[in-house]
Amino acid sequence: MKYYIGFDLGGTKVVAAALDEKFNILSRSKEKAGADKGTDAVYEVICSVIKKACEEANIILDDVVAIGGCAPGLVCPKTGLVFDTPNLGFKNFPLRQKLEDDFKVPVIIENDVNAGLYGELKFGAAKGFENVIAISPGTGVGGGVVINGKPYRGSMGGAGEFGHIIVQPDGPLCGCGQRGCLETLSSRTAISMQLASFSIRGRIPMIAEAANGNLKKIKSGLIAKAYNSGNKDTKTIVHHAAKYLGVGMAGLVNCFNPEAVILGGGLIEALPEPFTSISAKVMREQAMGNMGDIPVKEAQLGDDAVIIGAAQLAKEAEA
Amino acid sequence: MKYYIGFDLGGTKVVAAALDEKFNILSRSKEKAGADKGTDAVYEVICSVIKKACEEANIILDDVVAIGGCAPGLVCPKTGLVFDTPNLGFKNFPLRQKLEDDFKVPVIIENDVNAGLYGELKFGAAKGFENVIAISPGTGVGGGVVINGKPYRGSMGGAGEFGHIIVQPDGPLCGCGQRGCLETLSSRTAISMQLASFSIRGRIPMIAEAANGNLKKIKSGLIAKAYNSGNKDTKTIVHHAAKYLGVGMAGLVNCFNPEAVILGGGLIEALPEPFTSISAKVMREQAMGNMGDIPVKEAQLGDDAVIIGAAQLAKEAEA
Question: A256 CB near a chain B CB, below 8 Å?
């Protein structure tokens, strides 16, 4: 038997899974990334979760034929160099080279949203499409692009930075230094900060109780709970974010003319409605001609998408 | 000898050229499109300029091995169906099929900006790039995309509608029904209408004299003349358009992460400065990370780009 490893290096945790030839997930292993201990420590965590995923699946490393992993940020898929992951402190880190040296198998490293979209393309919501884009509102807003059935990365692995298309000039300040980037209006962070500011002024008691003003505690589940309770302020805030997601989608549709838009990430999982319908409506109104008359679909594979997508890319590279 | 025909179906005129195997242009033939006489009449003009281009080059139709043409608007490159060209009235017009029936050679039909960018890629300013975008501010703002060395058209031929990415919500009303589309701020039309409004109020005498309030008469050459005369209002107006072109470019760079941006069209030819430098500066400031540190180049081939690009695509399809 041949086995594959997929791993997802996230901002806070590393997850690895062992897959068999039919891409059944045999095991999942998870550890905190521990970015505060430095990049070498993060690398040790990656190695550790890979080994644990093998152990839990009862397979030996010699039977692993390829490893596919992803990192959040600018990654060069040709060299596997992780240029820049702001949340992890990686700068030009030769992740692929190091893993190939240590595990003696071919390794590919992909940007996380691209890997996730590729997973959805092969096994999930994007199955059957040739040209498709993915948007993932979370801490920021991630983006992925598939063109002619393959991930499109641009010249330096930076294509699909949809969080930083400007949808409201002079809008809220963005971490990138600009104003009005899509992620300042449609990310979970954008929603959380508005909910927090309302909650500390005595509005939205449910949020006030659960988070006590702490932005970090206003996660997707809590946002969904407040929304579904019928709280009017939460509704206004969430609808505004969904509307601007649609504005961004319309611009992207005019650029890429895709067959579908896939929405993914924890916020969309928690609140598929109203995000899908409001953003789709605005997209259809604002896109050129009938280019907006395309399906807007929720991702199906959840957190597994990136692992499966990365493993699939590794499998294809190894074949 | 093998010969190729390239033609450019524009909003007001049709140009055809005969090319030899080395892609030397042997002849050029031009006629008014005559869109007011209906699409059949326009089709006859296309046939007529193709024949004339052959005559002028002293070649017989039997020696033409392929025809490549382009149309301004939504074109399906697979079927050669011209879905929609607002300025010509074409709706689902089977241009490729009709030409193949009449000329008995393989025909390809491409969107004009895509064809132009492909011409620049093979023989002009974009030579050597794999992933590159083109922006062409004119009556509207056209866009072209090359990915992995080939034109990227999206699912219905509509990719690259860069004129309709929104750069200023609640900005000027656009023909597409939205507000603040790139072409409402950075097209030649956007500049002309502001110059016209100033000129009828006694400002910018050079424009007032030449155009007498008629928007149609404020063409790229006149804009350049007023700009180069040092007229302050013209400068303000042109710089504003160039700035928003840069805002649009930054968004596109975040989406496509190209190796270069090519600026083309009559307005850029007339005023390469300040368009190139101002738009590049804004793009570099606003694009994510160092993705904006890429060349912004003027197109080199002028009106020939579309003809050469379309003929090259026809040559490749025929080979």
Answer: yes
Q: Closest to B158 (Cβ–Cβ): which among A157, A164, A257?
A: A257
Chain B CB within 8 Å of residue A175 CB: no
Compare CB distances from B254 to A152, A164, A258 and report the shortest one's residue: A164
Q: Are residues B261 and B189 in the same domain?
A: yes
Q: In angstroms, what CA-CA distances link B260 with A75, B110, B175, B295?
A: 19, 22, 29, 5
Query: Secondary structure of chain B: what % helix, strand, coil (to 5)?
Result: 45, 25, 30
Residues A172 and A98 placed together within one structural domain of the fold: no
Least CB–CB distance from A255: residue in B159, B250, B288: B159
Residues B209 and B229 in one domain: yes
Cβ contact B291–A158 (<8 Å): yes
Give the three-class secondary structure for A187: coil
Q: What angle do CA B276, B277, B281 make, to 5 degrees?
A: 120
- The verdict on A185 and A288 lying in the same domain is yes
Q: What share of chain A is helix, strand, coil (3-state, %, to 5)?
A: 45, 25, 30
Q: What ipTM was reported for this prediction?
A: 0.78
B161/chain A closest Cα distance in angstroms: 5
Which of B91, B132, B133, B161 is most worth mutating to test chain A (most A CB atoms within 10 A of its CB)?
B161
What residues of chain B lie within 8 A of the CB of A84, using their CB?
289
Q: Are residues A162 and A44 in the same domain?
A: no
On whether both B109 and B157 belong to a single domain, the answer is no
Q: Considering its fold, how many domains does chain A have in total?
A: 2
Domain hosting A200: range is 128-298
pTM attached to this predicted model: 0.85
Q: Do A74 and A143 share a domain, yes or no?
A: no
CATH code of residue A97: 3.30.420.40
pLDDT, tens only, A188-237: 999 999 999 999 888 899 999 999 888 889 999 999 999 999 999 999 99
A254-270 pLDDT, tens digit per residue, is 999 999 999 998 899 99
Q: Which two tokens stand for residue A99?
A: 């893993």
